[in-house]
Design a protein that fits this description.
With about 160 residues, the chain is an alpha/beta fold. Helices cover about 25% and strands about 35% of the residues. It has a 6-stranded mixed sheet with strand order 3-2-5-6-9-10. Strands 1, 4, 7 and 8 form a 4-stranded mixed sheet that branches.
Length: about 160
Amino acid sequence: MNLRTFFATLISLITLSSYATGPEQIVFHGRIFVAGADRAGSTLTITTDGQEPELIMAAIDGTYRVSVAEGSTAVLCFAHNGHISKTVLLDTQHAFASSTTTSRNKKITFDVILQENLTPEMQAEQNVVGSIRFVRGSGLMKVGYEQTTIQPVLAMLGK
């Protein structure tokens, strides 16, 4: 095998291996803030593309980190004993639609504030507070949030 054939084979193998690794991952990370309590014991449940849910313990300081494959849908449910759980819907399709958004969308940071549960009925609710998706064609991130759940937080922050 001459040197030219060797390098052509090597380049082909590198190209093929990049396709064999599967879809790129988007990392979602941030902090869970817990009103009136220590953040230790906060959990995050992730359900990707309808598969079995995976329970993830947040770090003692409330930080979390999860990866979701491009083109997937996921449901993130943040919880802490004695607090109202919050759910965020993710749709990662089109996240890497352009070279500009590919670098921006690889790591996305957002924090979650869990409020104290004053009534037992609220604990059982699946409280969807927002969604993150990416626009087809441009890959720009679109964030949606439920107005009724964000108002108490804005009032608490004095906004």
